[in-house]
């Protein structure tokens, strides 16, 4: 999709009217599915993701007997993109995202508390418009919190890109926060996830080429975005907790 | 996901026998206290995904949840060979090729199951059968002689199926199809199709009329029977003792005005039976109970050979211990079940009325 990114420098507004450091609207719900142990629904702009967590349940511990296995299933619905496209489970991009999510939570959850058991994270992508991996990580965090599985802190993720392309030597290029599909197709971008509100980066994925000098700025913006996302997710969890207390479901 | 338990029944022969007796008493006593034609409560949401042509989500009270998204693409129709007469002019019958079954693609995804597992394949086959049965549906996808809409129906079951998911998936698909909209066609006849880019001007796949009755996509209902008692929307426990399980697909047609004059005014809907399938009840896989006469622990004598044991089972009095059902569905029973669905004031009418209650945005 051809996209004229040069218009950015004129008004410093992106195609959807945001400034460089603005997130899209993030809304989330937790405990959306009563039959699962934990579930969440997250929207980041037009990216919509559902996550359900089952477990920890018996079985597993095949890799390490002293800690729980984390199994991630990711299904991208055929109707999620602009064109209808079926993505199989063996798709390379899908399995890469699955292994990223799996290893992230393996190091964040206290899996040693559940030896010989399995935690299933099942993710459904209903609609995609950029920052997919970030949305999946955020939704998984919420569902795992809903399931009551102890973890070190929130894993929150966001994406960051750089406005000028690889070839142009424009040093004053602004980094952008939270990219949508058309921006992702046009610009170099990275996905970053941090632990809690800290600067500890737990995921950093970048598949495009960018000048090394730009990386620092992008990373700084991404980490800053993660902090904003954490505040939003924390509000969601607290709001849900208040509701549960009020309704006396405990 | 934990291995799917939906197909296994973890009930003892004594529990099965208890369920069977309570369901075969008249009126049947169902484990959740419903009447025989009562459905479980559900929550429906429509138009949840703006990126699709139509979408719906339904949550059943037992926690199972499904999402259906409908997406349409314009596709070039396959060139057809026409019979040519001596002058070399093609004679194309007006009606021919107005709808082909390949214009619809339906796939069902169930967590923890592969795409080629028997359950999703069977469910997809049953639902597309109902959709394509009368050939009316594919006609709606016709644009002109050279182009048609290709419709993709993606059905996602989000949770583990706790009972047979067919009614859930079918109801969700029904709502999604009811909301499916296409952009309005601006071009004429056999031109390359050009569409109005104003989404507010789009047209429904199933156009609504101001009167109550209009064409509706099919709904597939699950009906089961135990000992002559017919029950709707069976739960997992009830299915585990079912003798006959039937999937009945019903469609509704709008009623022409002159038809109204002729038909007596009592009937409010023109329901049509589209497809019926028997489903192998899972109760066949259960273990039979051991009657006292065959149990050494209770003073009986166990049969020494397996032939003898099965011979004794055959002659055993009905209703003493649990026995998996044998034989197929009786014809009069199937007829009674279909009758119960279709009759005036029957379940199908009630379901359609219930679906009318869903806010279609």
TrEMBL record, chain A:
GO molecular-function term, one example from the UniProt record: RNA binding
Pfam annotation, one family: RNase_PH
Listed InterPro entries: ExoRNase_PH_dom1, ExoRNase_PH_dom2_sf, PNPase/RNase_PH_dom_sf, Ribosomal_Su5_D2-typ_SF, RNase_PH
Alphabetical GO biological process terms: nuclear mRNA surveillance; poly(A)-dependent snoRNA 3'-end processing; rRNA catabolic process; U4 snRNA 3'-end processing
Superkingdom: Eukaryota
Subunit composition and interactions: Component of the RNA exosome complex. Specifically part of the catalytically inactive RNA exosome core complex (Exo-9) which may associate with the catalytic subunits RRP6 and DIS3 in cytoplasmic- and nuclear-specific RNA exosome complex forms. Exo-9 is formed by a hexameric base ring of RNase PH domain-containing subunits and a cap ring consisting of CSL4, RRP4 and RRP40.
Protein name: Ribosomal RNA-processing protein 41
From TrEMBL, chain B:
Any GO CC annotation of this UniProt entry: nuclear exosome (RNase complex)
Keyword Transmembrane among record annotations: no
Stated family: Belongs to the RNase PH family.
Name assigned to this protein: Ribosomal RNA-processing protein 42
Subcellular localization, as worded in the UniProt entry: Cytoplasm; Nucleus, Nucleolus
Record keywords, A-Z: Cytoplasm, Exosome, Ribonucleoprotein, Ribosomal protein
Gene3D superfamilies: GHMP Kinase, N-terminal domain
Chain segments carrying region Disordered: 282-330
Organism: Calycina marina
One GO-annotated biological process of the protein: exonucleolytic trimming to generate mature 3'-end of 5.8S rRNA from tricistronic rRNA transcript (SSU-rRNA, 5.8S rRNA, LSU-rRNA)
InterPro entries: Exosome_comp_Rrp42_subfam (IPR050590), PNPase/RNase_PH_dom_sf (IPR027408), Ribosomal_Su5_D2-typ_SF (IPR020568)
GO molecular function, one term: mRNA 3'-UTR AU-rich region binding
Record keyword Ribosomal protein present: yes
């Amino acid at each position: 999709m051809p996209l004229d990114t040069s218009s950015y420098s004129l008004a410093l507004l992106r195609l959807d009217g945001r400034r460089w450091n603005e997130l899209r609207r993030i809304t989330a719900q937790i405990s959306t599915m009563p039959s699962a142990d934990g579930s969440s629904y997250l929207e980041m702009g037009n990216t919509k993701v559902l996550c359900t967590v089952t477990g920890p349940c018996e079985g597993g511990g095949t890799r390490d007997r002293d800690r729980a296995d984390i199994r991630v299933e990711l299904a991208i619905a055929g109707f999620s993109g602009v064109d209808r496209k079926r993505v199989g489970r063996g798709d390379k991009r899908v399995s890469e995202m699955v292994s990223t999510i799996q290893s992230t939570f393996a190091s964040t959850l206290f899996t040693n508390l559940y030896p010989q058991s399995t935690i299933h994270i099942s993710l459904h992508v209903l609609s995609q418009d950029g920052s997919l991996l970030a949305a999946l990580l955020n939704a998984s965090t919420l569902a795992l919190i809903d399931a009551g599985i102890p973890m070190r802190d929130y894993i929150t993720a966001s994406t960051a890109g750089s406005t000028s392309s690889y070839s142009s030597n424009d040093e004053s290029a602004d980094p952008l926060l939270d990219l949508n599909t058309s921006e992702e197709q046009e610009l170099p971008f990275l996905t970053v996830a941090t632990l809690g509100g800290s600067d500890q980066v737990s995921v950093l994925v970048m598949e495009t080429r960018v000048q090394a000098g730009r990386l620092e700025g992008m990373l700084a913006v991404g980490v800053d975005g993660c902090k904003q996302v954490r505040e939003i997710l924390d509000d969601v969890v607290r709001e849900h907790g208040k509701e549960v207390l009020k309704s006396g479901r405990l | 996901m934990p291995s799917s338990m939906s197909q296994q029944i973890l009930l003892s022969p004594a529990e099965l026998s208890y369920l069977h007796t309570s369901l075969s008493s008249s009126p049947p006593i169902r484990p959740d206290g419903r009447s025989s034609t009562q459905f479980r409560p559900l929550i429906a949401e429509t138009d949840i995904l703006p990126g699709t042509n139509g979408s719906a989500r339904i949550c059943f009270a037992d926690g199972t949840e499904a999402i259906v998204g409908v997406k349409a693409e314009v596709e070039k129709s396959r060139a057809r060979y026409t019979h040519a007469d001596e002058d070399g002019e093609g004679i194309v019958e007006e009606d021919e090729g107005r709808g082909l079954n390949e214009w619809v693609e339906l796939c069902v995804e169930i967590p923890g199951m592969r795409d080629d597992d028997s359950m999703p394949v069977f469910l997809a086959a049953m639902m597309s059968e109902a959709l394509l049965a009368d050939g009316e549906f594919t006609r709606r996808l016709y644009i002109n002689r050279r182009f048609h809409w290709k419709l993709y129906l993606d059905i996602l079951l989000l949770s583990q199926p706790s009972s047979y998911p067919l009614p859930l998936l079918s109801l969700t698909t029904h709502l999604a199809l009811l909301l499916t909209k296409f952009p309005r066609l601006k071009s004429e006849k056999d031109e390359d199709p050009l569409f109005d880019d104003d989404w507010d001007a789009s047209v429904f796949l199933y156009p609504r009329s101001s009167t109550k009755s209009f064409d509706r996509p099919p709904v597939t209902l699950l009906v089961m029977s135990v000992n002559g008692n017919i029950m709707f929307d069976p739960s997992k426990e009830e299915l585990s003792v079912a003798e006959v399980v039937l999937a009945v697909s019903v469609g509704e047609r709008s009623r022409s005005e002159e038809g109204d004059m002729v038909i007596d005014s009592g009937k409010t809907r023109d329901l049509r039976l589209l497809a019926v399938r028997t489903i192998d009840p899972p109760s066949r896989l259960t273990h039979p109970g051991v009657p006292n006469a065959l149990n050494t622990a209770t003073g009986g004598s166990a049969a020494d050979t397996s032939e003898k044991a099965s011979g004794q089972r055959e002659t055993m009095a009905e209703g003493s211990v649990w026995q998996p059902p044998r034989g197929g569905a009786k014809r009069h029973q199937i007829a009674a079940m279909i009758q119960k669905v279709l009759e005036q004031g029957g379940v199908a009418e009630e379901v359609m009325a219930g679906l009318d209650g869903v806010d279609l945005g």
